# Entry
Amino acid sequence: MNPARKPLIAGNWKMNAGGAAGCALAADVARGTTAHDRVEVLVAPPFTALAAVAHELSGTAVAVAAQNLHPKASGAYTGEVSGPMLLEAGATSVIVGHSERRALFGDSDAVVAEKVAAALAQGLRPIACVGETLEEREAGRTLEVVGRQLDAFVRLLAERPGFGVVAYEPVWAIGTGRTAGPEQAQEVHAALRARLAAVSPTLAQQTRILYGGSVKADNARALLAEADVDGALVGGAALDAAAFVAISAAAQALAGAPS
Ligand code: PEP
# Structure
């Protein structure tokens, strides 16, 4: 972590907790997230629970994100949800380019860039994900792959430095219980920051780069202690309020610790 950047702990609920369970989970997270002035915390419920969770969390220290958006603002796009709709439901951020969207729903680099552009145009904070597969890592292609993915949208982020967020999520670490070691994560985060710096030093200084991939209460502190890890995107552990709160508390403790 670097004191110049406020850490962000984001919980991605994926296709879980879409109704009353989402409101109960949100309430539990909010109860454990008091006075997190040094850390930003948000949860990303499924579309069906967005408005209710935003209502539940209003006036608390926890914000709401969506997990995806359609690049167009409205129109004949059956089954899709647009940025203005997300804003109206109470979301302030949106996850874009998650590896599950890339692998299962065909979100190419170009589509991810369109979605980042749409989010920015509509005033939603994009949390744009990049990450290599196990095959790509084993072939020594990690930095090439995440660099290509970042390049697709990096110039868009430069329009408003510090607003957009990047999340490094190695595909092989998502939902597998395998996590990148702190040094492995730091290596990739530093490379991503260097790529941001090539566009603009201000962008590099101000952009938060989150780590995601089997982050849990017991490994969060070591990951978050790395210089270029500015927070976490949490999947499985975000469905357990106590675990998620413990991760944000680890960030809070580190952010408050004297350097
Ligand atoms: C994710 O899906 O963004 C994620 C990081 O999941 P998990 O924490 O379960 O690996």
